[in-house]
Hints:
By secondary structure, the chain is of the alpha/beta class.
Amino acid sequence: MKGKKRRVKSIVWVIVAVLVLGVLGGFGIKAYKDYQKEEAAKKEAARIKKLQEQAKLSKDQISIEVRGTYNLKLYSAEGKVTWSSEDAAVARVDEKGVVTGVSAGNTVINATYLKKKYPVKVTVTMPRVMQDDGKKVVYLTFDDGPSPKTAQVLDILKNNGVHATFFVTGIDQKSASLMKRAVDEGNAIGAHTYTHDYKYVYSSEKNYFDDLNKILNHIKEVTGKETKIIRFPGGSSNTISRKYSQGIMTKLSKEVLAKGYQYYDWNLSSGDAEWPAPSVASIAQQATNTKQSKVVLLMHDANAKQTTVDALPQIIKFYKDNGYEFRTLENSDIISHHHINN
Length: 342
Ligand SMILES: [Zn+2]
């Protein structure tokens, strides 16, 4: 009886021991697996860190001009590198690391590789041509057309062998083909907005860009050419937009640049926007009242602007007599931006 009891006891102990060992063993295996996992993660982290350390920017600081480009590279990067700009209104960057200066200022371009950021300081400066190189250039600009008056303006430009830039609307559909004639004769077309309706275009960013895209498509359809140059109705300095949306010009002026457009204000006005239309003498006087070497002259070729048409030959004569070269704003280096007031 006693021997049997002892045997049972030992069997129980053996079972307990096996169970305990089994559990401990299980823990051991799990701990070992965890350890292996941790080691693998450590190894992977070390591998990534090494790759990140090997990757090297071609430059960590660049300076380019407005419209100038620079191709940044992240050397030794084996995987995907993504490029981004912290302020696309100052400088843009494409997926290959090509940076384009948009407006004067400072920003940072980041290359992102294996979740690590590689920052490049970017300074964008005005093109040298904007600094006074003494060369006299006049940019004749006409807003609010095309209209039947545009045909007369084109005749005068042609007769004088000079070119101008037209910031157009979509209002007068019957005169739309004059945009094509203007381009065929060597003039430039820019977008002014389709409707020129302050209340509509300045009520929201969406409205503005809907309208802008509409006029851009219209220009492309009629002339067969895309344009990247624009002029805001009322100029970027307008205050009328305050009535419809606070701060909208601050936003729009940055956004158009970030989208790859350039906007042009003027540094001399012919005064012909007033109603009723000023006299020929008044327009000619204001349009030539300057000593600047770079003149972006504001005029209008809406149908009500007969006195502008009549003053144009004198205006052209003045700039010719004073040694100015006539250029269009297309592909020009000049940037004429007003102070933003809203
Ligand atoms: Zn206008």
